Amino acid sequence: MRIAVTGASGLIGSALGRVLKADGHEVVRFVRREPAAPDEARWDPERGYVDPAGLEGCGAVVHLAGAGVGDHRWTDAYKREIRDSRVKGTAAMASAVAAMDEAPGVFVCGTAIGYYGDTGDRAVDESAPAGEGFLPEVCVDWEAAAASAREAGIRTVFARTGLVVAAEGGAWGKLFPIFKAGIGGRLGNGRQYWSHISMHDELAALRHLIDTPSLEGPVNLTAPEPLTNREVTAAMGRVLHRPAVFAVPAPVMRVVLGEFAQDVLGSQRVRPARLLESGFVFRYPGIDESVRAALDS
Fold first, then answer.
1. φ, ψ for residue 123 (rounded to 5)?
2. What is the pLDDT of residues 106-119, one digit of tens each?
3. Strands (E), 215-291
């Protein structure tokens, strides 16, 4: 199958491109610059432009582009970038696939469990409503921006991804050096839930979304059992054979991270009900095995 991917240079997008090619698929990587390789196509989400030639013959489109939530302090300008990069990019790609004479069979839009906001100790699945705050509002607008694809009859799936356990990038990639140095520890009181997923299972789940016709709408991409930050901290210490006794107090995090700290300290106890119901089997359901897999990758 010919598959288009946006965000192809990011942590998940680049890994997805590799495994799709290994599976025998042809991957078209959408880039914002002038294409420099035969497998690249141009798009400009700010202007709403998508090169239609890049989409021709595609059986699936996986849209993963968006500014990193934790890459910069949340100024008003960067919050606009976080929102616009997701909403404008999704609207541009959804409109482009909807306008095709022969549309792809599926449009997978990568969103986030930030949709649910702070759930505390309450476990939620895809049936839960949106939470309150900046990230839930962004996620609601992000998913709404795909309306043209859905209205055109294209199967549209929202891959609400949790924290991906990866050593080479993303939020977890910042944790590994700290814990390897023996100065890792819980964040705040450590009682907040972290809904994680191994990189292997994230990629397998995205391929599952492409290949499973019954899946449409929101699907949580998280491991079966969310863990508290305290439990994650203990696992990192065990696997890396390092002490994990240092703690970063909540007030310090608020000074360092600003508004983003409330999301780091917030609790998201999210379960992948629809993924499990569809028959997906996790290879690394536990945190210890997820961390080991990240180290071995």
1. -80, 135
2. 999 999 999 999 99
3. 217-221, 227-228, 269-270
